[in-house]
Amino acid sequence: MNNFSQNDVEYLLTPEAIRNSTQKIFDLSQNGKTNFKLNIDKLEACSEYVLEVIKENYPALDIPFHSRWGHFHVGSIDRESKLNEMISDKDPMEQARTKLDLAIVSVLLDAGAGKEWKYKEAGTMFNRSEGLAVASFHMFVDGDFSSCENYFQADVEGLKKLNANKLKAGFQISDENPLIGVEGRVKLLNKLGETIAKNKEVFPQGRPGSIIDYLYNKHGKNFTVKDILSAILLGLGPIWPGRISAGDINLGDVWHYPQFGEEVNVDSVICFHKLSQWLTYSLVGPMLEAGLKVEGAEKL
Q1: Which residue, 119, 157, 293, 294, could crosslink 131 as a Cys pair with Cβ 3.0–4.6 Å?
Q2: pLDDT at 242
Q3: How far is it, in rounded angstroms, from Cα 156 to Cα 197?
Q4: pLDDT higher than 80, residue 278
Q5: Taking a C-beta distance cutoff of 8 angstroms, is the pair 96, 287 a contact?
Q6: What are phi and psi for residue 246, nearest 5 degrees?
Q7: Cα-based torsion angle of the residue sequence 223, 224, 230, 236 in order, rounded to the nearest 10 degrees
Q8: pLDDT tier at 241 (50, 70, 90 boundaries)?
Q9: Rounded to whole angstroms, what are the CA distances from 209 to 98, 104, 206, 235, 279?
C-alpha cells in the first residue's frame, strides 16, 4: 500500500528529493551497508582529474548543457542549423515548439542501441546514442511523427499511429542491422501521444513541444530549470510503465528501497529522475532562443 500525501508527491518530483534520498544511500555506503564500496581517499584525485578534463576541453568554462542537441552535431555536421533554415519562416515560439517536439521524441527513443546497430548517413556510420539521435532527427524532418502537412512537428495522432514498421524503416533496422527494444520504443511514443491528448493543460496544442506554452502561461517569460523539470515529471509521468504511483500520479524514476522500510512511503523511496533531467537540459536551449529567461540550471 502506497502512502503519500499531496506534499509528499510535490516533494518527490524535485531536485531536492533526489539529493536528499541519494544522500541516504551514500551514508549507508560509507558504513558498508550497501553493495557499493567507497574509497573516499580517492575523491580529491578524482575531482582534480575531472577539473583537468573540463579545463582542457572548455578553457573559457563555456560548458554546454548535457543535452540531446550535442548529439545532433555528431560527425561535425550542424544538423541544427539545417533545421533552423527549414523553419526560418516561423515565429520564435513556434520554432521553439518544433525543437522541443524533436528533442522530446528523440530523447524518449534513446533507450540503448545494442552493439550491432548502426545508422548510415551519407556514407558515414553512427551508432549508440549518436546514431539514435541522427536517425530520429531524419524521421522528424521527414514528418514521421506528424499527422498533418506541417512536417516539422510531433503531434497526438502522429505519435499514436507510429508503428514498428515505420520505426524500422526510419532507423534502418534489418536482420543484419538489429536494434533492441523496437516494440518498447514504439509503445512509449504511442503512450506519449495518448498522454498528451489527455493533458491539455500541460500540452495545450496537442504537441509535446507545447509544454513551452504551459510554462509561459504559468510563469511568464522568466522561470527556472526546476520549473521545466516539474512540468516534465507531471506531464510525462503517465508514459512510464510499472512505476510507483500516488493516486493517479505516476512518480516516474522513483524506487522503493526496503532497507528504509517495508511500507512504500516518502521515507523509503529513492529518487533519480535521470532521463527527465537530461530531457530538461535538452529543452533549455530552444526556450532561451525564443526569448525566454531560464535560470537555475545548477539546481538539477
Answers
A1: 119
A2: 77
A3: 6
A4: yes
A5: yes
A6: -120, 100
A7: 80
A8: confident
A9: 6, 8, 9, 11, 12
What Å distances lie between residue 183 and 130, 162, 166, 168, 254, CA to CA? 20, 11, 11, 10, 24
- Read off the amino acid at residue 279: L
pLDDT at 150 over 90: no
249: Cα within 13 Å, side-chain hemisphere: 21
Residue 35 neighbours by CB under 8 Å, 6+ apart: none
Q: Please report the DSSP string for the chain in residue order.
A: -EE--HHHHHHHTSHHHHHHHHHHHHHHHHTT-SS----GGGHHHHHHHHHHHHHHH-TT--PPPSSGGGGGGGGG--HHHHHHHHTTTS-HHHHHHHHHHHHHHHHHT-S--TTT--EEETTEEE-HHHHHHHHHHHHHHTTTT-SSS--S---HHHHHT--HHHHHHHTT--SSS--TTHHHHHHHHHHHHHHHHH-TTTSTTSSGGGHHHHHHHHHTTEEEHHHHHHHHHHHHGGGSTT--EETTEE--SEEE-GGG-SSEETTSEEE--HHHHHHHHHHHHHHHHTT-EEE-GGG-
The amino acid at 133? A
For residue 17, give the nearest of 277, 275, 298, 269 by alpha carbon. Answer: 269
The closest of 76, 71, 160 to 107, measured between CA atoms, is: 71
| pLDDT tens for each residue of 83-140 | 999 999 999 999 999 999 999 999 999 987 888 999 999 999 999 999 999 999 999 9
Q: Among 299, 294, 286, which Cα is nearest to 103's?
A: 286
**Chain position carrying cell 551514508:** 27
Percent of the chain with pLDDT over 70: 99
C-alpha cell at 143: 514528418
Pairing type for strands 124-126 and 254-256 reads unpaired
pLDDT band at 149 (very low <50, low <70, confident <90, very high): confident
Cell triple for 7: 506534499
